[in-house]
Fold this protein.
Amino acid sequence: MNQSIFTITENVPLTSSVMRMKLSGDTSAITRPGQFINILIDGLFLRRPISVCDYCDEDITIIYKIVGKGTEKMSKMQVGQKLDVLTGLGNGYDTSFSGDRPLLIGGGVGVPPLYNLAKVLIAQGKQVTVLVGFSHGSDAFYIDEFKALGANVIVATSDGSMGVKGRVTSYMDIDYSYIYICGPESMLRSVHEKCVTGGQFSFEERMGCGFGACMGCSCKTITGYKRICKDGPVLYKEEILWQTQK
Amino acid sequence: MADTKVTLCGIELDNPIIPASGTFGFGYEFAELYDINILGTFSFKGTTLEPRFGNPTPRIAECTAGMINSVGLQNPGVQKVISEELPKLSKCFNKKVMANISGFSLDEYVSTAKLLDKCDQVGWLEVNISCPNVHGGGMSFGTSASSAAEVTRAVKKVTQKPVIIKLSPNVTDIASIASACEGEGADGISLINTLLGMRINLKTKKPVIANRKGGFSGAAIFPVAVRMVNDVASKVKIPVVGMGGVSSAEDVIEMMMAGATAVEVGAANLINPFACRDIINDLEPTMAKYKINSLKEIIGVCV
């Protein structure tokens, strides 16, 4: 983990409620796709944890949905503004398990961390399928970006206004070697039921510190108590205990 | 040169800064960020006799200048603390640590204290009496002078180490409870634990915290903490460890002027993992700013 100052270089809307922010600064603490950063926001006490969509040596891209006070304040931030950010948080996805045909599943604002994951897997020569679900076509984002990476992309929308109609679980009957997923818990749960290979599931929980100190985001697993922020957010298919998740 | 040393119940601290229980784990994770030997000491994660998972999530809520937590004393149990956590800590911390213990019955406090009494690494026992007394109908041990005194007496019997009783602020007269603990031989008093609070989500019309309410901490509670530390320090002769919303070297000095011999830093660690390091670095320049040569000299100047 690093604490450092980042400068906003971009903050633009992708849909009516989803924004993309680019932050320039020291990204050396980030080691894996699926990790997150924790942003200090002026006027708010707790930092706001946001998953890393993509990063390089100089900058981080995050995609966030405006859902509360924190993200609303973020949406009004200007290019050039400086932010105090903790980076390199969480375990992230381990790509060594992927096999040669990994299936990446995302729902809503669970989609962003899959972007860097797809990039890494494709660079490793894997044949990546990205299956993403949104409520409506107007909520969808990053479809072209995933295609540009060379991924096979399937979009499912609840109302069929873009791609195929229905839930992502209806379109999992394809040949895949491993599953990586990030999305709402209901989606994680239904994909977990249908998943016929190994898989890594990224969870969300309300956090205090984001780096393992406060025990605010603990959950029970087969392998013991885990902190979503430090031992997660990625849990392995075999260790997830749904009945006690909430 | 400015003298930051203080003596807490017979043990000298290089400075009065102590990360508060529940905000610093068992120390070793912060040791990856900075050398934690710069601390006065720290109070480790509240430990009970048996392992506890704690409360359901969400356990955290945002507040203006603070937060609510209802972690519920998640800890691996005293046996594992002794067999696993303390050995890990010994690799990165060479000072005496403050052992924070909790219990739901007198027997639990006694058994936990007995086991930690045997650990050389432990310098002090900080006894959290904010949990509900299962034998006393669920009312917190810390909310009456008689039950607080009862816990003090029981723990003092089984340990040679200094016993610091950590008091809840959710009471009518905190000084009389402190006084009752002093009467049973407490070596120190620490305060304040969190203030009971609650937030409601306007969209769902439900409490934000799964357990409905939790402990309010952070900068917002600092003035309440200063006042209560002052109330207690005015009443007892034993040392007082002040805490509650401390976030800067100036807050530390204010807390000491109110009567604190040492100062715990809690929620600030969760926002800035380097908070205690930063406060320690700021301590000497801040002392110079207020023409303070020795921190010992300012303890309780406002009592």
In short: Chain B has one domain: 6-55+72-199+217-298.
